[in-house]
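Researcher: Please predict.
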Amino acid sequence: MSSTQDWVDAVSQELNVATPVDVAMLLDVARIAAHQVERPAAPLTTYLLGFAVGQGMDPAVAMGKITDLAANWPPGGAVAK
C-alpha cells in the first residue's frame, strides 16, 4: 500500500468517511484541472468533486462533467457567461 493510500485511509477514518476513496480518480481530476486550467484549480476541483458526490452525484458522472469542462476550457482564462 502506498503512503498516499495510507494517508487517505487515515484521514477518512479521522473524518468518519465510510465511503471508499478512489485515489486514482482524484489524482486524475486534480491533474486534469492543473494542466487544463491552472495549478491552483486542482485542489479546488477535487473539493468540488467530493462535494458533488456527497450530495449524491455518481463519481463517474461528476468526473466526466469535470473532464469535459476542462477539455473545453479556453487557454488562460475564464469562459464568457
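Model: The two ends are 44 Å apart (CA to CA).
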